[in-house]
Amino acid sequence: MSKLLTEKVALVTGAGSGIGREAALLYAKNGAHVIVSDMNEAGGLETVDKIKAVGGDARFIKADVSSPEENERLVAKTLEAYKVLDIACNNAGIGGESNPVGDMSIEGWKKVIDINLNGVFYGMHYQIPAMLTQGKGAIVNIASILGQVGFMNSSAYVAAKHGVVGLTKNAAMEYSAKGIRVNSIGPGFIKTPLLNQLDEATMNMLVSLHPIGRLGESKEVAELIVWLSSDKASFVTGSYYAIDGGYLSQ
Ligand code: NAP
């Protein structure tokens, strides 16, 4: 297999589980040095072990994406370790409280916005200056199909993911001519621990929403993330790519 990311330095948030873990693994398999970041230390270290087991290079840096200071420290530590930052995948996110708007708690709203939207802003806010010093970089922000349409009882999540799509467009307008491509992706429902809390009936209902007749796999999403991060996507910026088994086609 030809490697798409040889010697690139790639940072992935929320890389201790699910989509982030598979993206980190595929970055490494494609030759990148990977900064595995997560709030969950055990999960992050397990991802590093998995990368090392296939001969890749990775190190874990703990960070809570909802903290501006921790995002700043994460980028500073990345530069300390590798001198440059070529790729960032802003992936960390939570499902959050399930309630209609009138019942959604203020804390529940703020928590999702803090992690799923503010976390992406804080990430880019510190990643972009690091990328500008070498005049190139690629950022992939993980939005969702729910960055395009609503979903019952998920207002904070839906608002945050719509926000990520808009924020991505703006950053792309501001930095593409300076060498930094910024894109977002919108996975349909993917089999990850994020969905663990759902019962079987809900899972079956979710499957029925995907014309392809199944949920997605993290590995499938990682393929798109790696492609968008690579020079193969050199003219792709400011875009939103659905990867959703046809969910949005209906
Ligand atoms: P996941 O398996 O739950 O993994 C998310 C990881 O992020 C976990 O390790 C989690 O730690 C960590 N995390 C949570 N809050 C954090 C914070 N404040 N700072 C740093 N790390 C934090 O979820 P996933 O399904 O892979 O989701 C990854 C991204 O894809 C999210 O942005 C999600 O919204 C998006 N997405 C998922 C789906 C889906 O169906 N799974 C669909 C569309 C979009 P803990 O384990 O300690 O919580």
Task: Tell me the β content.
Answer: 15-25%
Looking at how many chains there are and whether they match, the oligomeric state comes to: single chain
Fraction of residues in H or I helices: 40-55%
Helix count from the secondary structure assignment: 7
CATH fold-level name: Rossmann fold
Radius of gyration, in Å, reads 17 Å
- Major sheet details: 7 strands, parallel
CATH C-level class is Alpha Beta
Ligand names? NADP nicotinamide-adenine-dinucleotide phosphate
So what's the overall shape? globular
* End-to-end CA span: 36 Å
SSE string: EHEHEHEHEHEHHE
Nearest-integer average pLDDT? 97
CATH superfamily: NAD(P)-binding Rossmann-like Domain
Explain how this protein is built.
The chain is of the alpha/beta class and 250 residues long. It has one domain: NAD(P)-binding Rossmann-like Domain (Rossmann fold), CATH 3.40.50.720. Helix content is 44%, strand content 15%. The chain has 7 helices and 7 strands, in the order βαβαβαβαβαβααβ. It has helices at residues 18-29, 41-53, 68-82, 106-132, 155-175, 200-208, 218-229; strands spanning 9-12, 33-38, 57-62, 87-90, 137-142, 180-187, 240-243. It has a 7-stranded parallel sheet with strand order 3-2-1-4-5-6-7, with helices on both faces. The longest helix has 27 residues, at 106-132. Bound molecules: NADP nicotinamide-adenine-dinucleotide phosphate. Residues 13-14, 16-20, 38-40, 43, 64-66, 91-94, 115, 142, 144, 187, 189-190, 192-195 line the site of NADP nicotinamide-adenine-dinucleotide phosphate. NADP nicotinamide-adenine-dinucleotide phosphate is lined by residues 13-14, 16-20, 38-40, 43, 64-66, 91-94, 115, 142, 144, 187, 189-190, 192-195.
